[in-house]
Each structure stands twice: as C-alpha cells, then as structure tokens.
Amino acid sequence: MRFHKYHALGNDYVVLDPRDFPDWREPSPVQIRAICHRNFGLGSDGILWGPLPSTSCAFGLRIFNPDGSEAEKSGNGLRIFTRFLWDAGLVKNPAFTIETPGGPVESVIRDEGRLITIAMGRVSFASERIPVTGPAREVLNETITVLDRTFTFCAATIGNPHCVIPLPAITAELARHYGPALERHPDFPRRTNVQFLQVLDPANIRLEIWERGAGYTLASGSSSSAAAAVARRLGLVDRDVTVHMPGGTLGIHIGEDYAIRMTGTVNRVATGTMHPELFLSPA
Predict the structure, then answer these.
(1) Residue (of 269, 259, 221, 261) closest to 243 by Cα position
(2) Could you tell me the maximum CA-CA distance found in the chain, to the nearest angstrom?
(3) Residue 175's closest CA among 190, 153, 195?
(4) What secondary structure does DSSP assign to 7-25, as a single string?
(5) Whole-angstrom Cα distance, residue 279 to residue 205?
(6) pLDDT in tens, 129-150
(7) Helix 75-87 to helix 221-233 angle, to the nearest 10 degrees?
(8) Rounded to an integer, what distance in angstroms lies between the CA atom of residue 115 and that of residue 242?
(9) Burial of 228 by CB count in 10 Å (0-12 exposed, 13-18 middle, 19+ buried)?
(10) Is the C-alpha dihedral spanning 7, 99, 264, 267 positive or negative?
(11) What pLDDT is stored for residue 167 in this prediction?
C-alpha cells in the first residue's frame, strides 16, 4: 500500500493514488483516522485521494480530513496534489485543471514543482452559499458568542466555509481555545473553518487557524484566500497580500469579483509503503 507524503508550509498531506489500491473504492473513515494519527499512523493533516476521472478537468481529487470527514477544497492540498502529479510524471504541461467537490481550479507549476500557483476561484460572502443561518445577506461585521467571549466576524466561502475574525492581536492559544466552539457553532450548519486575522499593513496579514475536521493548523491555502478576501472587502488591504502563518507565507492576489490566485511552496517528504498492521492500531 504505497503512499506519498508532502507538506506545504507545515500543512502535511498523504497522497494515495487509487491505482495502488484496487480493492478500495475510497479510504474509509476508520482507515483515514488510522493513517493520519500522529502516534499510531503516518501522521497527516489529511488524505488526498487521486487522481480520479473527471469529465470537466484533467484530473479529479477528493480531500479527506483526519477525522474522516470530507473537505470540499484545500489550497495547500491542491498545491501538494499538483506537485505529486508532476513528480509522478502524470503531467507534461505545467498548467492544467483539477476538479474538486468545491469547484474546479487551475494549477500552474513553477520551479520544477517546488512553487505552485492555484487559481482558487471566487470568494463569496453570501450567507446562503457559505452557508450561515438566517436571512440571505452578505455576512460582514456580525457578532457571534462562544464560551465567554463575543467576537465580530465575517463569513466567506471559496468552495468551503470560513469564519474570519479580525482582531488587533492574535495568538495560537486564542485559536486553540475558541476554534473548536466556533467550528461547531449552530450558525454554521456544515461547520466552518476559523481564521483569526490581524492586518499588519495594506500588503500583509497574519493568521492563526483552526481548521474544520483537522484542528489547529500551521497554514491553510483556502483560509488564506478567504481571510485576504475579507480584509479586502473591509477595505483594509490592497489586491496583493502576503499572508503570514506559523508555517510560512503565501502570496495572494485578489482579482475582480474576489477571484483568488494563490502562490506558495511545496516540499516532498517521503514515499513508502504502509503495512497492514497500521490498521490494527487502537487509533
């Protein structure tokens, strides 16, 4: 059972090529949790299951969180999957498209796969698309109460849901403490990714991230896209923004209608085989 592990700014994924798993229709939640477990498995922020057939794009991809749930889209995951396709010799043209449950994206390979640009799609702030409960509206500068604190937040989607909380100062402890309650707040019927946002200047923002189904995360491409778009919508940043996260930085360009183009690095970690005993662990 062959695997390929990569990280993008410390956000690590295991790529499983379905051709190596002829008996699997897809990895089960139990198998996903075992593989992703940091002690009993390979350790990963998620599973990339592909390439899959697609009627509209060059490749299809499904993305699974370490808790076994499925993600619609992942910016770091898409960059990693792009690098895997390049390393595996499955692409010759450096520009191609990938179909995800959160919509199609375009990948462009640079620097022999070490730097990837992804056209992530357009960010929407519409409550019915994110989704957020209540009447149809743009979800901007609303209040939400969790645990012992009330925050002002904005919500957005780029194929997956995000709750962005602008603050003058942010910490990892803040994300770890309030992230779980915000992720599962009843205002978000499909749960949500959470970003604590600090605007440094018109060209730089800083994030601490709690990711739906994964927990505290060193970096996230879709979170960077959503948070940068929210900062732009609030008039706080320019169209080109560097997003600073504990794992490193991403470049975000915010186009017309909030179309996002994201550029960042990918590092190859390991290729190997999983032993069947992995799935006998107590994970």
Answers:
(1) 221
(2) 53
(3) 195
(4) EETTEEEEEE-GGG-TT-S
(5) 41
(6) 999 999 999 999 999 999 999 9
(7) 140
(8) 15
(9) buried
(10) positive
(11) 98
Matching residue, tokens 């012992």: 148
Q: At 148, is the secondary structure helix, strand, or coil?
A: coil
Q: Which residues of 246-277 are buried (b: 16+ CB within 10 A; e: fewer)?
A: bbbbbbbbbeeebbbbbbbbbeeeeeeebeee
User: Which of 226, 228, 220 minimizes the C-alpha distance to 203?
Assistant: 228
Between CA 122 and CA 105 the distance in angstroms is 10
What's the token pair of residue 256?
């017309």
Query: In the chain, what are the domains?
Result: 2-114+266-280 (3.10.310.10), 142-263 (3.10.310.10)
Q: Please state, as a whole number, how many other Cβ atoms lie within 10 Å of the Cβ of residue 196.
A: 26
Place of tokens 């002829």: 22
Say what the pLDDT of residue 282 is.
Answer: 62
Q: How long, in residues, is the chain?
A: 283
